[in-house]
Design brief:
Aminopeptidase, 207 residues, 9 helices, globular, seven-stranded mixed beta sheet
Length: 207
């Protein structure tokens, strides 16, 4: 069963996150960071996040939402104490690395930029994860289609995601769903809800 994420799901979501992304930067930020991050997805109006349930057990999740930059600001604002706690703990552990990591996150997702793909008409898929023992059952596809359907209901024109170039399995999965590769390296994909937006996007890239 697929349903919107709730705060009661967060401990299990964090466990899945750490299982599926053990080497990711967000995992290294620690549980306080992850708690704030996922609690923010439960509170933000821009967030779109679902979990898959099997007998009330969370077996997978998907997160993202409308206007990634605004969403990131809302998540930090709504869960600021968890982020502050995470930043302080990590600073004393690894001061130089922590400054680089947190400043990189702020620069990429929070601080204003003159030009960006994201607006209230576009969205981003941040992460999707399924417990290893539940893979191969179509859960990832169910989560992704529920995610895209919700964005469509909100009038979104396009949804973007990033994927590692060498992760051919993930790239084939997203292509099967309907995402289109939009850069030469194959690390950026967009699902277009609006044909006119698609034509405008590709024509602007050619100039």
């Amino acid at each position: 069963m697929i349903q919107f994420i709730q705060k009661k799901h967060i401990p299990e979501v964090i466990r899945i996150h750490k299982t599926c992304f053990p080497e990711s930067q967000s995992t290294k930020f620690g549980d306080a960071f992850l708690t704030g991050y996922y609690e923010g997805h439960c509170e933000s109006e821009h967030a779109v996040a679902f979990v898959s349930l099997e007998q009330n057990k969370v077996t997978g999740f998907i997160t993202g939402g409308v206007n990634t930059r605004t969403l990131s600001r809302e998540i930090i604002n709504q869960s600021k104490w968890q982020f502050i706690k995470s930043a302080v703990v990590n600073f004393f552990r690894q001061p130089v690395q922590s400054i680089k990591k947190y400043s990189g996150y702020l620069k990429a997702y929070v601080l204003p930029k003159k030009k960006t793909f994201y607006s209230d008409q576009t969205s981003g898929l941040a992460s999707i994860a399924v417990l290893p023992e539940y893979r191969g059952q179509g859960i990832a596809e169910q989560l992704t289609r529920a995610f895209l359907e919700e964005l469509k209901k909100r009038g979104n024109k396009a949804c973007r995601l990033g994927v590692e170039e060498q992760n051919t399995r993930a790239r084939r999965f997203y292509e099967k769903i309907g995402f289109e590769q939009v850069n030469e390296a194959g690390s950026s994909y967009i699902y277009f809800f609006d044909r006119n937006f698609r034509e405008t996007f590709f024509s602007s890239k050619e100039k």
